[in-house]
Structures are given as C-alpha cells and as structure tokens.
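Notebook entry, structure prediction.
Reason for the run: the old model in the group folder had no record of what sequence produced it. Starting over properly, with the input documented here first.
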Amino acid sequence: MDFNNIKIEALKRAKQNEICEDWAIKMQNTQTLDELLDMYIKGIDFSFSTEFLSNDFIRRNLKGKMEHKGIYLDDSIDLHNQREVVCLGDTRLNYLGNQFSVSQMYLRDNVKVKIVAKENAFIMVDVFDNVHLEIEASDKSNIRVNCYKGAKVTFKNSDDSYVKISNKDFKTYQ
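New structure, fully documented this time:
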C-alpha cells in the first residue's frame, strides 16, 4: 500500500476511535510516512489505548518502513542508546543505555526486553499487556517504569543506580 492509502486508512481508523479534530487535521496534512510515524509516537497514548492501528495493519503496511523511527514489530534486535523505542508483537530486545544517554521506551503485547543501564543513563519505560522486562542497573543510572496491568518487571541495581516501578491499576493509558 502506498503512503496516501496508508494515510487515508490510518485517518479513517483514528476517526472511528474518536481522535480529536486537531490531530485529525495534522494526520490529513502529513506529507510523508515519516511524519505519520512521528505522529504515532507523539500520540502514543491514543495509539496504544485505542489500538487504531492494529499489529496486523502495521505488519501488512509498515513493516520494513518504520524501524528507522524506532518502531519494531515481531523483531529480534539489539539497540544502544536509542532515543525512542516502540516494541510491539513478539519483539525481543536487548538494550544498552550508557554514557549519560536518555531514552524513552513503549513496550506492549508479548514483548520481552532486557535493559542494561549504566554510566548515568536515564531511561523511561511504559510496559503493557504481557511484556516481560528485565533490568540491570549500575553506575548511577536511573530507570523509571510505568507498569500497567499484566506486565512483569524484574530488576537488579547496584552502584548508586535507581530503579522506580510505578504499578498502574489499569490496562493502558487513561
């Protein structure tokens, strides 16, 4: 499917899920797939809470075109100091954050992730569904996790590192 058809279908699905008028106009005005993918990430609360773009839609139309933006579906990857990461489906991720890096991750579905954080890295993570997240923190790193119902988080920390898990009583963003 070409970009215009992807945009038309994405906008249709977003409107069916009651996207606000401002964002609908922004989606309508996107000129490239990268702009549309940026909107998906910036509006991740809407994207995840409505799942207006299903994994099947993403698999059929966006797989191979979104990874450079940090969006992965059913992949097995190793990443280092990436700024934004979205993992969906059955993705397996090994992640290293170090040297004062700052990262934001959004993990849902059946994703399995191991994060190694050190050397003052700062990582924010939102986990949903059946995600399994394992954290190893050291060297004054700082990891903050918003853990929604169903997700599992384990961690080990040392060397003045800080790990905070905030358990949420709901399945997704409110």
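Summary: The two ends are 32 Å apart (CA to CA).
The old model has been moved to the deprecated folder.
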